[in-house]
Sequence to fold (388 residues):
Amino acid sequence: MAEQSTAPQTAAPTPMIYKGLAGVPVDYTAVSKVNPDTNSLLYRGYPVQELAASCTFEEVAYLLWHGELPDDAELAAFEERERSLRGLDHDVKRIIDELPLTAHPMDVVRTAVSVIGASDPATPDDSPEANLDKSLRLLAKLPSIVAYDQRRRHDLEFVEPRDDLGFSANFLWQTFGEAAELPVVTAFDVSMILYAEHSFNASTFTARVITSTLADLYSAVVGAIGALKGPLHGGANEAVMHAFEEIGAGEGGAERAVAWLDTALAEKRKIMGFGHRVYKNGDSRVPTMRDSMERMVEHYDRPDLLELYVALEQAMGERKGIKPNLDYPAGPTYHLMGFDTLTFTPLFVASRITGWTAHIMEQAAANALIRPLSVYNGHDERHVPTKD
Ligand SMILES: CC(=O)SCCNC(=O)CCNC(=O)[C@H](O)C(C)(C)COP(=O)(O)OP(=O)(O)OC[C@H]1O[C@@H](n2cnc3c(N)ncnc32)[C@H](O)[C@@H]1OP(=O)(O)O
Ligand SMILES: O=C([O-])CC(=O)C(=O)O
Fold:
């Protein structure tokens, strides 16, 4: 038994506060490894660059969920099921139609996922099989949701999914209503692979917190979408394009970029698409995404956009020594492909659904309620005045 002391109490030591949980490991994960020292990213042990070079996004989704790459038969069965789930129920379309065009597309995606969850009789079933099925359902339907919302903003009809096309080719087909050329499909697929997973980022952690309360998978995904929307996280790909629009590509773009940056830094603005909580010397995914962006610059003959990209990156390096993150090359790539700027973060959702749900299933399999402590720094105890 602890000895009781009558000595005067010394003040308790001030507990360490890890603001923003920076640098704090909170659990194990076998889904991915982000290593800032070697500037590498592994999904289930495989370098993401190798996956981007040799695999389709469907294979990567399978890998993230099952821990292994699929063999031919497993892939064929997976693709068949994914393709069969791509359609949207009338109710989901009706509810999207009722949302005002002033709603951000991230709000539309969040609402649509919520509706799918509320309508799925399997929602309360949290068995691994049911969670896998829900994950695949969302993966298959997100392109329909994102494409439908972009098209309704241009007064265009929904384009039905095609089951003869892979995930990325079909996504582009449903968005633009025409078959995309192979280099565009490839660049888009690479972006989906690079965005798929990144350990305990804010949105994935949100999904894990929600899962830790034993709430259902759909609730965790809805929460993750909310966390991804912010410009310090997924919203940055949209914000990069707003900056490019403010600066204006075309003749003199490079000079304008430098002047724009100086003003923005003088105003203490964060430059979107630069910096990272974990990587302090560049983001492992940027070279691969930049390569895809350059292919698109060539494909669409937009060297002016690349010039602006390079000028801003160089000036940011000189002034702050801060390097781009994945959102920096992804934003202009999606712009070149024809996506509306407001649709960029929903594209991130359509990819990250794989990583989120892999983490949700991992959290559920070895759960502990996530509930940290806080240090109170408010008023000392006080009392409500008695009323006469
Ligand atoms: C896919 C993704 O989600 S990647 C992240 C996407 N987000 C963005 O691109 C938003 C812009 N970037 C940022 O805001 C930050 O770099 C973050 C939020 C991503 C990481 O932030 P943290 O690790 O918390 O670093 P923090 O914000 O404390 O920055 C450290 C210093 O670098 C500066 N800094 C970091 N990023 C930037 C930036 N993009 N623009 C200007 N200054 C920056 C900060 O002002 C701070 O300077 P100070 O020490 O003089 O105050
Ligand atoms: O890891 C992070 O904090 C943000 C990020 O790059 C991602 O989620 O892809």
Notes: Strands lie at 32-35, 40-43, 46-47. The longest helix spans residues 128-152. Residues 198, 201, 277-278, 325-326 surround oxaloacetate ion (ligand 2) (CB under 6 Å). Residues 1 and 48 are 54 Å apart (CA to CA).
